[in-house]
Write a structure and sequence with these properties.
CATH topology: Arc Repressor Mutant, subunit A
CATH superfamily: Winged helix-like DNA-binding domain superfamily/Winged helix DNA-binding domain
Radius of gyration: 18 Å
CATH architecture: Orthogonal Bundle
Mean pLDDT: 94
Low-confidence stretches: none
Strand order of the largest sheet: 1-2
Number of strands: 2
CATH class: Mainly Alpha
Shape: globular
Order of helices and strands: HHHHEEHH
Number of helices: 6
Helix content: 55-70%
Length: 145
C-alpha cells in the first residue's frame, strides 16, 4: 500500500522527517550525556557492541550499526587514537581486521549502561509500558525488509 502520493506528500509531515528529527534529538542528548567520557553516541554503539562480543571486525560493526565502511574506519581511527581500542590483522585472513577494546575502552564501555538508559528514559517518560512496546514493535517493523 502506498501511503504517500505526490499530491499528499509534505516533508514535515512525513514519517521520514519525524524519524530523522527524533534521531537528531536523541543523538544530541546522548552526546551531551557522554561528553565527560569524551565519546559520541556513535562511538558508544561501537564500544558496547565490542564489549558484548556482538561484533569484532569493522565490517561486522558497519553492518550491525548501519554505518558505511568509510565512516566506520574514521570512527575506529578516533577510538584507536584515544586509546580505547586496538586493531590487529587476522592470522587466518590478512584482509580481516580484528578489534579489541583496551583496558581504558573496557572501563568506558562498562559505564555506558549507567548513562544511556537515563537519556532514553527521559525521552520516553510520557510513554506507557504498552506504548513503549508498541513503538519498539513498529520501529522493528519499519526496519524489516
Amino acid at each position: 500500500m502506498n501511503h504517500y502520493t505526490p499530491d499528499n506528500f509534505s516533508l514535515t509531515l512525513s514519517v521520514g522527517f519525524s524519524i530523522n528529527k527524533a534521531r537528531n534529538l536523541l543523538i544530541n542528548e546522548m552526546d551531551a550525556a557522554l561528553k565527560d567520557l569524551d565519546i559520541t553516541s556513535q562511538q558508544m554503539g561501537i564500544l558496547l557492541s565490542m564489549r558484548r562480543g556482538v561484533a569484532t571486525t569493522p565490517f561486522e560493526l558497519s553492518r550491525l550499526l548501519g554505518i558505511d565502511t568509510g565512516l566506520m574506519t574514521r570512527m575506529l581511527d578516533k577510538l584507536e587514537i584515544k586509546g580505547l581500542l586496538e586493531r590487529s590483522r587476522s592470522i587466518e585472513d590478512r584482509r580481516v581486521v580484528n578489534l579489541k577494546l583496551t583496558d581504558e575502552g573496557e572501563a568506558i564501555a562498562e559505564r555506558l549502561p549507567e548513562i544511556a538508559p537515563v537519556v532514553l528514559n527521559r525521552r520516553l517518560k510520557k510513554f506507557t509500558k504498552a506504548e513503549f512496546e508498541e513503538l519498539r514493535r513498529l520501529l522493528n517493523k519499519f526496519l524489516a525488509e
